[in-house]
Amino acid sequence: MIVFSLLFSFLFAMDPAPNHAPHLLTKELLDESKPSDWRYVDQKNLLYLETEKGLVLIELMELMAPNHYLNIKQLAENKFWDNIRFARSQDNYVVQWGVSNPKKMKNVKPRLKGEYFTENLPKKLLTPLEDKDTYAPFVGFFKGFPMGYHDDKTWMLHCYGALGVGRDEAFDSGSGTELYVVTGHSPRHLDLNITLVGKVRLGMELLSTLPRGKGPLGFYKDKKKGAKIKSIRVGTQLPKKKQLRLQVLRTDTDLFRKLIIARKYRQESWFHYRGGRVEVCNVPLPTKIVSK
Amino acid sequence: MIVFSLLFSFLFAMDPAPNHAPHLLTKELLDESKPSDWRYVDQKNLLYLETEKGLVLIELMELMAPNHYLNIKQLAENKFWDNIRFARSQDNYVVQWGVSNPKKMKNVKPRLKGEYFTENLPKKLLTPLEDKDTYAPFVGFFKGFPMGYHDDKTWMLHCYGALGVGRDEAFDSGSGTELYVVTGHSPRHLDLNITLVGKVRLGMELLSTLPRGKGPLGFYKDKKKGAKIKSIRVGTQLPKKKQLRLQVLRTDTDLFRKLIIARKYRQESWFHYRGGRVEVCNVPLPTKIVSK
C-alpha cells in the first residue's frame, strides 16, 4: 500500500484528508442494519407493472406531484395500460408507454399543470448530500427519492429509474397517461422541465434491457415490436395475497448518513483512490422483498 | 410563455441570465457543420467487436494508456476473444468479457501497471467545460473523450460507453485481457481506480441490452447464458473492404464549443427551464458512418 500512497498522494491532496476517513463499508453497514432502518412501501404508493418477462415495482411519490399521483392511480384502476405495448426505448435515455392525449375518462383529468417542484417540503426533512452537483444548488434525499433544492423549492431528480410523465410542448399537456422511466445516464437537464412522480424499486432490468426502437427518439417503427405490458395496478387495487412486502432502506437515519460516507470514501480494498465524494444519482438505495 | 416566465423566474435567478442565452440548437449546429468539424477515426484505433446481433465500434485512446493499448491490439491480433461469451452484465453498471489471468501469450505482457492518468497531455489541448463536476476539479474533452484534470494530471472518465480494463485488487493485476464497458449511470467513483482505454462510438445498444446475469455482480451463473462474441479486431487487422469509415465530431472546434452552449441552455421549445449547465457525461458526441 506504500506504493499506492505515493502514487496517489497528489490526488488525495485534492480532498480533505480522505486517508483518514472512517472505516465504513456498505456491506457491513447493511449487515448491521436494524429493522427500524427499513420501511415498508405503502401499498397505496406501490405500482405493479407486470411485463411479459416479470414484475417491475415502482414507488409513487404523492407529495411532489399530488395531481398526477391521483390520475395515475385512477388510470391503473381503469386498467388504462393493460395489454398495451411499450412505445419507445431509446438507448441511454428512457423507455416510454401510453399516450399523451387519450379519450375522456371517468375520474381522470385530461390535462394537468406540470408539477415540477414543491414548496411544501420543509428542508429539515431532507437528508443532505454535501458534495457539489452540476445541476442543482443543493441535493439530498427524502423518503428514498433523490431531490434538488434551493430556497423554499424542492424537486425530484432524473436519476436512473426515475418515473416521469410524458408531455407535449405545453406546460399542461401531460396527465399521467403517458409515462417514462430513465434507463441510461441520468438526463438531469430534464429536471424542472417535466413532472416526476416515482422511482423503480425492483425489476429495473426488465425495462433497461428492452430492445431499442429503430425510429427517431427510439420509438418502435413497427408498433408490434414493443414488448407487451400485461397490467399496471396500485397495490391497494390487488387482492391481499398478491401484494408484495417491499422494504426500502430509510434515508432519514444515521445508518443512511453512514452509507453516504461509505460511498464517498470507498474503504473496500479494491479501491486505490478514495475520492471523498459521491454524486446524488450514485448513492444506492437497497431494497428487498420480505416474505409474509 | 408569460406564465412560464413567472413560474420559473426563481429558478432562472439561480444562473447568470440564461434567458439571454444565444439561440443555438444542436440540430441546427450539426446541419451547418463543415467537413472540417469532423474527423475520421484512425483504423489503428478502431476496435471492431462483432457480436451475434451486430457490430460494436470502439475507439481506443493510446495516449492515456499506452501499454494497455498495445496489449489490447496484440490480443485482438491473437484472436484472444474470438468465440468467447460475455461473462457479466450488471444492471446500471457494466458488461464484461475475457479473463484477468490468461495463459502466457506471445507479445502480450501478462501484467501491466495501472494507467490511471497521464502527465503528457498539455492542458491547452483540452476543451474545458466550465460547469461544476461532483468528482473532478476540472473537466473537459480531448479527441472526443471526456476527461478530468487537475494540476498537470489528466484522466479519462467513466461515462456511459467507456471501455475499461478489469483488474483484481493489485495495481498491476490487469493486462487488457479482461475488458468492460459502462452500461448505466456513469460510475464516476471508478475514475482513477482502474485503467480506461476507449469509448464505444457505435452499436452501444448491443451491449446495454444484454440480459443481466443472475449471479453476484451480474456474472452469468450459467456461463452459456452469456451472448457470444464472434470476434474482436482492430481496423488495421481487417481487409480494406471490411473497414468502416467512422466519423466523430471533433471536440477542439468552435462548433463543439457552441454545441456545449446549446446543451447548457437548451433553446428547443419543449424546454421550459433552461438550466444553464451541463454535466460532462451528458454532452453528446455525434458519430456517423460515411460511405466510401
Q: Can you lay out the helices and strands and say which pair or pack?
A:
Two copies of one chain form a homodimer.
Chain A: H1 2-12, H2 26-31, E1 38-40, E2 46-51, E3 54-60, H3 66-77, E4 86-89, E5 94-97, E6 127-129, E7 138-142, E8 145-150, E9 153-156, E10 162-165, E11 179-182, E12 196-202, H4 204-208, E13 229-234, E14 245-249, H5 254-264, E15 287-290
Antiparallel strand pairs in A: 1-14, 2-3, 2-13, 3-12, 4-5, 5-11, 6-7, 7-8, 8-9, 10-11, 10-12, 14-15
Describe this structure in words.
2 copies of one chain form a homodimer. Chain A is of the alpha+beta class. Helices cover 15% and strands 25% of the residues of chain A. The first copy, chain A, is built from 5 helices and 15 strands. Chain A has helices at 2-12, 26-31, 66-77, 204-208, 254-264, and strands at residues 38-40, 46-51, 54-60, 86-89, 94-97, 127-129, 138-142, 145-150, 153-156, 162-165, 179-182, 196-202, 229-234, 245-249, 287-290. In chain A, the strands form 3 sheets. In chain A, strands 4-5-11-10-12-3-2-13 form an 8-stranded antiparallel beta sheet. In chain A, strands 6-7-8-9 form a 4-stranded antiparallel beta sheet, with no helix packed on it. In chain A, strand 7 (138-142) and strand 8 form a beta hairpin. The radius of gyration of chain A is 20 Å and the shape is globular. In chain A, 47% of the residues are buried. The model of chain A is unreliable at 1-7 (pLDDT under 50). At the A-B interface, helix 1 and helix 4 of A face helix 1 and helix 4 of B.
